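Q: Hi! First time doing this. I have a protein sequence and I read that you can turn it into a structure. Is that right? Here it is:
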Amino acid sequence: MSNRKLNVFLPLLFAVVLAIGMFLGHKMPGSNTGGTTVFFTKPSKGALQEVMDLIKTKYVDTLDADKVQQEAIEGLLAHLDPHSIYIPPSQLQSVNEDLEGNFEGIGVEFNITADTVNVVSVLSGGPSEAAGLQTGDKILRVNDTLVAGNGITPERVRKLLRGPAGSVVNTVLLRQQKKIQVPIKRGVIPLYSIDASYMAAPGVGYIKINKFAATTFDEFMKAMRKLEKQGMQKLIIDVRQNPGGFMDAAVRIADELLPDNRLILYTKGKAYPRTDYKTKRPGMFETGALAILTDEGSASASEILAGAIQDWDRGTIIGRRTFGKGLVQEQYDLDNGGALRLTVARYYIPSGRSIQKPYGDGTSYDDDILERYHHGELVNKDSIKITDTVPYTTNSGRRVYGGGGITPDIFVPFDTSRFSPALTAIYTRNALGNFAYQYYTSNRETFKRYKDAEDFTKNFHTTPELFSEFKTFAQKDSVPGLNRLSIHDEEEIKTRLKAVLARQLYRTEGFYETVNANDPVIKKALETLEHNNKH
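A: Yes, that's right. Below is the predicted 3D structure, encoded as structure tokens:
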């Protein structure tokens, strides 16, 4: 376009833009004060912000504004559902790390006894193993900070040990009564969401998922490939005590278990139109016999997975009624470094049911599990309270209910005999874990004969001598009733003692492989899969 034409065209363009602007300004809400003023009027702060500003500037005394603000936010959220929460800046990193599936640090597990930081295990392939740390080492100093004998807390130790990958932390350790200096180059440490995957019986694979994080699907596929190589034809997925996490992880795992183009769930909210999540690809395990293990601690994403499997009659749900969380949250970062996790939609599983349990109607949401225990639901299937009286049907026409979790197809009661005074004291004092650490560090040579968790589970036995040694240890820790243990208590202690020693050697993989050998829910799942060759 020539300059002359441009000189004629530009004034015309400006006139058109100005006319459109004046018209739009006139049509905007609140524009009756004059079309253009809307662009210069400051938005109203709202009473809450006004009050906060007045307190900061005018109040007679100095206040901790952050604390007041946090309490105000929490007060506001208390009027919403139980899952809309404020995450303060101090907690956001650990909350995010848990779901991201990793953190940056040195890769050790530790416990604190008598003001001493003990290295309980060293992560295989991690920075601490590369630096030569060993189970049994005691950490005395981290950089310039003394961490022994001064009321040190686990949070403080974690803060000192964690830091950017590639940075170096200088430690002073006590090993066999000698002080040694060990520099450790920090790295990215995985937080695994699959605790164990192994063959629970010939042809039957077992996978334990502790949460649904960013890395869960990849971990699940790796476990499935390993089990398939070992001849897996049937599968147990254990989501007991799994509080949920990312919905996407549960959807992707369900896609591996269900045929193509099946609805897994749909979400719907005031500002969120219905969104359907369907299976998209050929799955790894669409036809083999399948069991999902649930309990009152299985929530959210765990319920999505169990619900989709139940509604399509793809497998058997075994255990106890799930938690009952059918609300979807989104996390919004705030300017102060914290975050708001806000409920934005409900989710509905394929039969159309919402499994969200009641809240805000006078019932105690947080005490719901305790109430289930008191009215006998954990030990008696007939005591399960159905809060949603409208029945739904599965793909084959079986009747199911919403409004308070997913009721299992096969009920297995909770073992209430585990609450004897002696066992309760042993668990609350962590006597088993503390003893296992001490016993292992004193007898590590004797454990070298076991090549893996499977070998240990089959061939290690809790001898009378080991049991007696534990009782002596527990007596020093003031555990009551050790001289009048029931046969059940003795068996429980022996099983758990073996399991915590397996954990000391092989982490969670060893613990679950050992403890599951006597688990009634696992036994019921193996029996059920024996009779269900296909679903």
